[in-house]
Amino acid sequence: MAENDEREPDIPAVFYDSGDEGSFNGFELRRSNNDSDSDVDLEGLEDDSGGPAPGVKPAHKLNSLSSNQTVLQGNDATFNCLTEAFPTATTYRWFKDGNRITNSANFEIFDAGGVEESRLTIKKAQKGTAGQYSCDGTNGVGTGERKTAFLLVNYKPRLVTVTPDPADVELGQSITLTCEADGFPKPSYSWKFNGAAIGDRRNTLQLASAQVLNTGNYTCMARNSFGSAEETRMVNVKFKFTSIMNS
């Protein structure tokens, strides 16, 4: 009786351009010198130990305590760019509002080649450093998709202005005072006349028919949850003196 031939089962082959060869998740990887056979996407394949196969671009996770951050002006903010790739990413790039950023007085970037994380610190965050931040990482296979997060910077109102300046109005005419302030979150407004509160809570105050008794100091206060600031404007109601002669 003839003995049965024992043969190893056929293993499907995947051709690729990496210098590594071996068995990955039931696939035999063979290096190919034929360009037409080298365009095989190995992303998602795993080696025998459960790790990713060679040739996987970095996939990114941009996070810290939360993806988007809000800090008080003058405090530092930090974003971490995490990658999942094999081999691990060797270089990272950071961007603000789409523009490349590097180490400077405002930004500090820390990473080491061949690690899975890069850290960006925005130093003493100001209004001008608020915006959209993103990162990407590159390994020998390519550059991963860029990921994005936002930085918001809170600060108390400043640069309060009241217009017009000067605020002169003819007797019986109307005048509108407009108050503007820079702050985040957006400020709310209130008014005082000669130190006494006026009920109007808008950023505009109108005197529909100015009278002499409306002459005085008008103060606008801008306020948010981080503080307040104010500006005062003098309103002059002008009128002509009329001479009365008795005969």
TrEMBL record:
<dbReference type="Pfam" id="PF13927">
    <property type="entry name" value="Ig_3"/>
</dbReference>
<dbReference type="GO" id="GO:0030424">
    <property type="term" value="C:axon"/>
</dbReference>
<dbReference type="GO" id="GO:0005886">
    <property type="term" value="C:plasma membrane"/>
</dbReference>
<protein>
    <submittedName>
        <fullName>Hemicentin-1</fullName>
    </submittedName>
</protein>
<dbReference type="InterPro" id="IPR050958">
    <property type="entry name" value="Cell_Adh-Cytoskel_Orgn"/>
</dbReference>
<dbReference type="InterPro" id="IPR007110">
    <property type="entry name" value="Ig-like_dom"/>
</dbReference>
<dbReference type="InterPro" id="IPR013783">
    <property type="entry name" value="Ig-like_fold"/>
</dbReference>
<dbReference type="GO" id="GO:0043025">
    <property type="term" value="C:neuronal cell body"/>
</dbReference>
<dbReference type="InterPro" id="IPR003598">
    <property type="entry name" value="Ig_sub2"/>
</dbReference>
<feature type="compositionally biased region" description="Acidic residues">
    <location>
        <begin position="36"/>
        <end position="49"/>
    </location>
</feature>
<keyword id="KW-1015">Disulfide bond</keyword>
<feature type="region of interest" description="Disordered">
    <location>
        <begin position="1"/>
        <end position="57"/>
    </location>
</feature>
<dbReference type="InterPro" id="IPR036179">
    <property type="entry name" value="Ig-like_dom_sf"/>
</dbReference>
<dbReference type="GO" id="GO:0008046">
    <property type="term" value="F:axon guidance receptor activity"/>
</dbReference>
<dbReference type="GO" id="GO:0007156">
    <property type="term" value="P:homophilic cell adhesion via plasma membrane adhesion molecules"/>
</dbReference>
<keyword id="KW-0732">Signal</keyword>
<dbReference type="GO" id="GO:0050808">
    <property type="term" value="P:synapse organization"/>
</dbReference>
<feature type="domain" description="Ig-like">
    <location>
        <begin position="54"/>
        <end position="152"/>
    </location>
</feature>
<dbReference type="InterPro" id="IPR003599">
    <property type="entry name" value="Ig_sub"/>
</dbReference>
<feature type="domain" description="Ig-like">
    <location>
        <begin position="157"/>
        <end position="236"/>
    </location>
</feature>
